[in-house]
Amino acid sequence: MSKTAVLVIDAQVGIIEGPSIGPVFRKEQVLEVMKNVIERAREDNLPVIYVQDLDVGANNPEEQKIHPSIAPQETEFVIQKTATNAFYLTTLSETLKELNVEHLVIVGCKTEFCVDTTSRSATVLGFDVTLVADGHSTTDNNVLSAEQIIAHHNCNLHGLDNVNHFILVRNSTESIFEHKHLEYK
């Protein structure tokens, strides 16, 4: 049986609340979804791994912290990064392999940067990904609203595959910990 883990990407105060980067679109709702996903994972004894971007709040330690409403427990992993790809120059891939993880359930921020890049990279590194459709967020940019960015990524990432591994975008109310990808292999 394949093992599933939850990956919480850059759910930091400075992104979710701001002021320098956020607040993200529908922050209360996305925080509630992330909290529920994390709590369900803990109840199912699934690993919860946090990724923390060291560039966020580099000059403000409060903004750099993982949001207190979804803070990691002492036994959970926190992997620090400096690139948009959570696998780049980090121990994330090795940690997942040591835990025998084959399926990642991803939530976090920001949709078009770290969530997108990490989700795509995971597939070429041998992991199937379930991106939680209502569990990631971002801010408006000069071209698109945050709502449009999120919808665009949910549409484009669903079914994205790299040889043997792919991304499914599923709502948090679905059985997201089920490694549904195996039905297609």
TrEMBL record:
> To which protein family does this belong?
Belongs to the isochorismatase family.
The entry's protein name is Cysteine hydrolase
Pfam families recorded for this chain?
Answer: Isochorismatase
| CDD domains, sorted | nicotinamidase_related
A GO term for molecular function:
hydrolase activity
User: Isochorismatase-like domain: which residues?
Assistant: 4-140
Q: Which organism is this protein's natural source?
A: Litchfieldia luteola
Q: Which InterPro entries match?
A: Isochorismatase-like_dom, Isochorismatase-like_hydrls, Isochorismatase-like_sf
